[in-house]
Amino acid sequence: MEVERMLGDLTRGVIKENALLKLMIGLCSALAVSVKVENALFMGMAVIFVLTSSNIVISLIRPVTPHNIRIPIFIVVVSTFVTIVDLSLRAYFPVIYARLGVWIPLIVVNCMILGRAEAFAYKNGVVASALDGLGMGVGYTLVLLVMGFIREFIGTGSITMNGNVLFSLGAGFEAPTFMITFPGAFLTFGLVQAGLNKYEEMMNERAARRRTSARGSGTGVGAGA
Amino acid sequence: MADVRLTVSVSPHIRSGETTQDIMKWVLIALLPTAVRAATLFGFTGVSVMAIGVVTALFCEVIWHNLRVGKGRSRTWGALAASLVVPAGASFAGLGTAAPILTTAVMLAFIACEVWMKRKGEAPHVFDGSAAVTGLLLALVLPPRVPWWIPFVGSFVAISLGKEIFGGLGYNVFNPALVARAILLLSWPRYITAGWFKALSVDITASATSAATNAAVDATSIATPLAVARATGGAGLAGFYLPLLWENTAGCVGEVSGLLLLIGGGILIWKRIIGWEIPVTYLGTMAVLSLALGLDPVFQVLAGGALLGAIFMATDYVTSPVTSKGRLVFGVMCGALTMILRVYSKAPEGVTSAILFMNMLTPLIDRSLRPRPFGVGGSGGGKNAR
Amino acid sequence: MGELQRYFLIFLGALLVYNILLIRFIALCSFFGISTSMETSIGMSLAVIFVMMVSSTLSWGLWNYILVPLGVGEFLYIPVFILVIASFVQLEEMFIRKTAPTLYRAMGIFLPLITTNCAVLAAATEVAKPGFLKMSIAYNYTLPEAWVYTFGVALGYSVALIIFTAIRERIDFAPVPKALKGYPLAFIASALMSLAFTGFSGLLGL
Questions:
Q1: Which of A32, B172, B349, C97 has a CA-to-CA distance to B317 between 20 and 30 Å?
Q2: CA distance C15 to chain B (A)
C-alpha cells in the first residue's frame, strides 16, 4: 500500500538501516561532533535540512541529469544547501559555528548525503526521496544525540546547553575526561553499535522462539546463546 | 581434541611444553622483589594500590569468563553490580574511606565463590595468572598516592578493553596495563601526574637515601627525577643514580628500585621467558640516543618507567613481534620513540606512548618480516606474499 | 624559525600530531570500508596521495588567484573546491584508463571513491583557507608549505590505514562476543590506535 511504503521509507533510516550504525556512512562528522549534546543537536538539524532538501531537488532534476556527470551535479546541489547552512549558522549562532568548524563544509562530502543521493534520490520519486532523507537524517541525529549524551554526561558530569546546565552529577563526581577525547568517541561509537547489535540479536532470538513455538515443533530448538 | 574442524589461528603454530601458568608464575616471581621493596618504601598506600589492582583484575577476568561461557549469569551480574554499587553507595552515605575495603571484600568474596565452585565440579575459571600480572603491572605504573578507585577503574579497563573485548589472552593488540594507564592519564590527569610520595634531593650528601619514612609532603611540590632533570637542564644528575637503583620514592610504584627490576629481568631472560632482544635494544637505543643528544645515558635509562617498560611491558608476547629480527626492530624503535617523546614533547613520560605505538605496528612488523619459507625463492615474505 | 624547520614542523604536525584519521576523524568512511585487505589499503593510499597533492595545488591556486581577488571566496569555496576535485578525479580516471590500463584495473573502484573522501576536501580547504585546523604554527601557506602539509596529511592517512588493516587482519581471527564482532570491535581497536597517537600531542610544541 502506498502509505505503508511511504512509512517504510521514512522509518527505515531510523533504526533498521541507520546510516551510521548499519550503513556506516557519515561517520567522520558524527564522531567529531558528538562531544556535546548541543553540537550534536545542531549538526543533526543541519544534516536533516541538507539531506532532505538535496534529496528533493536531485529527485526533481532526475530527467535532466546525464548519468556520467551526475556526481558533480549532486555536489553542486548539496553544496548550495550546505552554503545556506554555513552562512546561517555563522550569522545566527556564531558560537556553534566556531565549534562545528570544518565539519560544516564537510557535510558536502558527507558520505551519507552523496550516498543517499546516488542510491535513492536518483532513482526514486520526490516524495519517497524526501521521506528517505528525513528518516536518514533523523536516524543520524538520534545516534548523534545518544553519543553526545553519553560522552558529555560521563565525560564532564553534566549537560549544558546554551550555557545553562541542564542537569549534572554534582561537583564531587570525578569525570573521566577520556570520554570527550577522540579515542573516547571511537569507543563510545563501538559500544553503541555493539549495543544495537545485541538488542537486535535478542529481538531476533525472541522472534525465532516465537516462531518455533507457534509452529508447534516440539524439538525445543531455541536460539543458541 | 576429537574435533575434525580446522582451526584457523594466528601464528606461531609450534608448541613447547610451557603453559601460560608457568610463564606468568615466573613473571610474578620476577616482579616480587620490586613489589616487596615498594611495600617497604610506601607502606600501606603502596600495598593497597597493588592489592586493589590485582584483585580487581582477577575479579574482572572471572566476570568476563563467566559471561562468555554463559555460566552463572545471575550471580556474575550480581557481583558486578555489587562491586559498582558498594563504592558508590558508600561514598554517598559518607563512608568514603570504607569504600575500598568494602569493594575489595566484595570482589574477593566473589572470586572465592568461583574457586569454590571449581571444587563442586562446575566448569571452573582457570586462573592462568595473566590477569594478576596485568593488575600488578598496572599498579606498578601508578603513583603511590592515588585514590583507591584509580587502580580499581584502571584494572577494569585494562582487563576489559585491553584484553577480553578482543577475545581474551592472545588476541589483544595493545598491552593491557599500558592501555589502562593511557586512558587513566587522559581521564584524570591530576591524579596520575601527581601523588608522588617524596622528593629526592639531588645532593646526595643529604640523607636522601634514609628517607623511607612516611613523611607526608605536599604532592604538588614534589618532582620526579625526570621532572627535575628537565627543570635543571641535566646538571648533576649523577646524584640520582643510587636512589634510582635502590630507593627511589619519587616515582611510580614500580620505579622504586632499578636494581631489583634488572634482577627480575635477568631471571626472566635466564629462564627464557623473555628474549634478550627487546630489553637490550630498547635500553641500548635509549642510551645511544641520549649520548647523541647530550644527555646522561645512565640517568635516562634508570629514570622513569624505562626499565619497567623495557623489561616487563614491551616484552609481552602477544603485543610484540614474533620473530627475532622483528623484536630487534621493535626494541630499537621503542627506545627511539621514548627518547624523542621525552626530549621533544611536553609529556611527562615517553614509555607508555612509545610502547603503545609500537604495539600498533607489531602486526605490520610480523607481516613484513616473515621468515622465508624453506624452498621458496625470490624475495620471500612481505606484503606481496598473499 | 628557518624555512626548513617550518616545513619539518608542518609535516610532522600533519602526519602524527594531528593525524587526519585518528586525531581529526576525517575520512573515516573509507577507513573502515577499505581496511579489510592490504591490497585495497595500499591502493587507496597511493591514490589518495596522488589526488590530494594535485587537488591541493589546484585549490591553492584557485583561492589565491581567482577567488580572493574576485571577492567571492567566502561563499563559493565549497562548491569550487569540490568541483575541482571531482573533475580532476574524473579526468584522471579517463587518463589512466587510456594510458595505463593495468593500473586502472588495479585501482578499480577507488578513483571515483576518492571524490567523496573527506580528507581530500579537508586538505584542499586548509591549504587555501586556513583557520579550521588549530595548529600552533602560523598558517598562511605558501605553495611549498601547502605541498609539505598535504603530503604529511596524505602520508598520515596511508600510515594509519595500513596499520589498521594489519590490526584488523589479526583481530578477525579472534573469538569475540557476537554483538561485538566486526565493526564494533574495529571501532574499539581504532579507539586504542587513536590513544596511541595522542601520545604525540605537544610534540615539538605543536
A1: B349
A2: 14
